[in-house]
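Q: Predict the bound structure with zinc ion.
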Amino acid sequence: MSNDTLDTFHGWLGHSAAAADGQMQWGPFTPRAFQDDDVDIAVTHCAVCHTDHGMLTGVWGPVEYPLCVGHEIVGRIVRVGPKAKDRFAIGDRVGFGAQCDACLNRPFPYWNTAASAAPAAGDGHQGGCVPCSTGQEQYCPEIVPTYGVRRNYDGTLARGGYATHFRAKSHFTFPLPPELPSAHAAPMLCGGITTYSPLVRFGCGPGKAVGVVGLGGLGHFAVLWAKALGADRILGFSRSVGKKDDAMALGCDEYLATLEDGYADAIKEREASLDIILCTASSVGEELESYITLLKPGGTFVLLGNADGGKLQVPTLPMLMKKINVAGSLIGSPAEIRDMFKLAVEKGVKPWVQERDMQDANEALKDIAAGNARYRLCLVNKDA
Ligand SMILES: NC(=O)c1ccc[n+]([C@@H]2O[C@H](COP(=O)([O-])OP(=O)(O)OC[C@H]3O[C@@H](n4cnc5c(N)ncnc54)[C@H](OP(=O)(O)O)[C@@H]3O)[C@@H](O)[C@H]2O)c1
Ligand SMILES: [Zn+2]
Ligand SMILES: [Zn+2]
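A: Predicted complex:
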């Protein structure tokens, strides 16, 4: 495909919050201006993250429509900027996740050219960004998510992967190991890395017992990674008994249904038995107390789901009595993404993915909202 055909992309556009109910409309959009370190990707696969649904509704804050979501992207490179030529070539199969940019220590005024105020000294714009200097780009104060946010430095709106093409920063573009099928690699780029990163950070491995709350896209990855990393014991939590067989097949040793009779007794029997709990549920209520009960002294509860309302009610006394850590975690860094792919190949990790035609994106979104995915839906551009 020649460069001049890449001035207009087509994709699923949300024009209002109603788009989240399955009313996205297919149409053209103009990508941001191509820069020297960019690559253009012809999207073959884009998996569906619950965040896509939440962003379209605007539940986490005002959104700018029309919005094209999708940040679990796999495709083939069709255009390479001069500063990306040392790493990428046309035809390469690559992946792209939920982060499309960071300051990467580029100096002011590269950042904030659209803003009037000069940055304060040491806030990351001056070339001294600690996250970007230490391989934790996802915690850069200038993080640009893959879609829905206007970039500070050029004012353009980032667009996602429910589309024919995606314009990508090469720093956040990843070559894919040939062993990984595209439909498996795609959901790893957000759902996978968001669970891999905190498991590694908090020491998941032999000798450790791990709890996974919420068996959706993220949760099923958490079980697969905990197993691949060699955890001694994995306890899965879901609201109902319906996912028990799947949980055990994924690698759980035990399964508890939080809304079923007997849950309180089951917690008592397992008190102080877990080292790490990853909470992937999209909301957390009173049952948070039961998770803290299950943690060993010094154990860590990691929040991954963006709890509705943005508040978490943590029981304080048990926290003090057991020196419990309550942590948050955001996606993962480029280095962690590369490590995750290595582990996936080494251990033969196989996510449970249901493929859908890109043309059926509205139905897929409705299924995600209804909790019907088992366990990640992946949109496929059949003619890409
Ligand atoms: N931190 C990050 O960087 C990051 C990255 C990606 C996504 N996220 C967030 O992580 C969350 C999960 O995403 P996902 O793609 O895995 O979603 P998903 O596939 O829809 O799974 C979410 C799971 O949460 C549980 N759940 C849903 N509603 C619940 C409720 N009211 N109370 C308790 N549990 C509930 C369900 O599990 P059961 O049926 O088993 O109970 C459901 O399967 C979302 O909030 C998403 O925005 C965060
Ligand atoms: Zn996501
Ligand atoms: Zn930075």
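A: The CA atoms of residues 105 and 133 lie 7 Å apart.
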